[in-house]
Design goal:
The chain has 214 residues and is mainly beta. The chain has 2 domains: 92 residues, Immunoglobulins (Immunoglobulin-like); 100 residues, Immunoglobulin-like (Sandwich), CATH 2.60.40. The protein is 4% helix and 48% strand. The chain contains 2 helices and 18 strands. Strands 3, 4, 6, 7 and 8 form a 5-stranded antiparallel sheet that branches. β6 and β7 form a beta hairpin. Its main location: secreted. One of its GO terms (cellular component) is extracellular region. It comes from Panurus biarmicus.
């Protein structure tokens, strides 16, 4: 068993990091190096950069999990935030472990669009829906990520007769419904799409493929 003076260091949380997808933001950390650290409880605080007072996150106060949801606390997406975590075990508290600075608008990862494909004999109509943020309009619908950024849809077609990995960009822009014409009947085509953000030169991952046989 560890000497009690070593315990605070050995249970101190490691690698405190924000993870964020479409402004759904969670804080993650790893337990300290001691074997006993698996039994520790964790306490999370957060603040906006420049504030002197740390706020407790009540739902993450004395938890055994290594994840804390801070979506609501980081909803002012242009602000820089910090968070910190400490561990407690057998009445002994570690020092706080600090995250890096986190600015949601700069650092959230944009997810791919939803893609629906409808085909006729020589064309494919692609319907696109931007990913949604967790934040809601007054009527209750979730606000799309296109409200926060100047985003473009990029649509790619994969002709399954050719190389599977060969994606051809057939559209880039803001239209939510596009038509791809002059395709060959009897051929299977797959569509994938991405969100592209020119201002930060970021792309989302590809959407799942939607395939159709003309």
């Amino acid at each position: 068993v560890l000497e009690n003076q070593d315990l605070p260091d050995s249970i101190k949380p490691q690698k405190v990091e924000f993870h964020s997808l479409n402004f759904n933001t969670t804080l993650h950390w790893q337990p300290g190096w001691a074997r006993e650290a698996r039994e520790a409880l964790y306490f999370v605080q957060y603040k906006v950069y420049g504030q002197s007072l740390w706020q407790n996150k009540d739902e993450c106060w004395g938890i055994s999990s290594h994840v804390c949801d801070l979506t609501h606390e980081t909803s002012d997406i242009q602000e820089p935030y910090y968070s910190r975590v400490r561990a407690a075990l057998a009445g002994v508290y570690s020092n706080w472990s600090l995250s890096c600075r986190f600015i949601p608008w700069r650092e959230t990862v944009i997810g791919p669009p939803m893609v629906t494909v409808v085909h006729s004999n020589k064309s494919v109509t692609v319907k696109l829906q931007a990913p949604r943020s967790p934040y809601k309009r007054k009527r209750g619908s979730k606000i799309p990520m296109t409200n926060y950024y100047d985003l473009l849809y990029q649509v790619f077609i994969i002709n399954n007769l050719l190389d599977e990995q060969h994606r051809v960009l057939v559209y880039e822009g803001k239209d939510k419904v596009i038509k791809i014409q002059d395709l060959r009947p009897g051929v299977s085509y797959c569509i994938v799409a991405k969100m592209y953000m020119p201002v930060l030169d970021h792309s989302s991952a590809y959407s799942s493929r939607q395939c159709t046989l003309l």
